[in-house]
Amino acid sequence: MLIRNSLSPDTIEILETADNAVSVIRRLAERIARVGKLDASRIEQAALDRERTRTTAFANGAALPHCRLADLSRFLTALAILRKPMRWDLEGHAVDRVMLIVGPLAAVSDHLRILANGSQILDSPAISAKLRAAPEAYSAYELMVAAEETLEARRAQVGVLTEIRHQGGENKDFLAVVADQFRW
Questions:
Q1: Which long-range contacts (CB under 8 A, 24 or more apart) does 43-48 make?
Q2: What is the pTM of this model?
Q3: Under CATH, which number does the domain 3-180 receive?
Q4: pLDDT per residue over 18-73, tens digit each?
Q5: Structural element, H or E, at residue 153
Q6: What kind and span of H or E run contains 114?
Q7: Residues contacting residue 130 through CB under 8 Å, at least 6 positions apart
Q8: Distance separating alpha carbons of residues 98 and 65, to the nearest angstrom
Q9: Which 8-state DSSP code applies to residue 9?
């Protein structure tokens, strides 16, 4: 399972900013619920319960709240892009990209793959900047799909762990070539 199979323009929201993590998770849970014909409050509660155990925010400005539910048969992903960062947690993380991942309880490896792909894509400075400038949800969706295709191709070519190592002391953003293809 990949992000491109679980994300859609209908589950992407571009916001100026947001008040707090709860409000962002609520908005994304509502989008997922509409698309998947699910109970938004149940998704929201499960994601918030997971968030309370440990923050899903990273120092790079992304947060990946996630949960798994017993009666789901497929993954659904939603993305919020904030033009201005907001404080996510008590640790002081400021985020401007939030990807909510909801999946079946039994699909652990697929869950981890979507989580890994999301964290890699949202860690790219070039992709992050391009997402913040996206004119609308469909453009953001196309960028996410293209970035994931590049990530998957690289993973197939050089291996799973190589992509996160600093080779030769370089910390090059290999997804910058993808971001450069989008002109907005």
A1: 43/67, 43/69, 43/100, 43/102, 46/102, 47/100, 47/102, 48/22
A2: 0.92
A3: 3.40.930.10
A4: 999 999 999 999 999 999 999 999 999 999 999 999 999 999 999 999 999 998 99
A5: helix 137-158
A6: helix 108-123
A7: 143, 179, 182, 184
A8: 7
A9: G
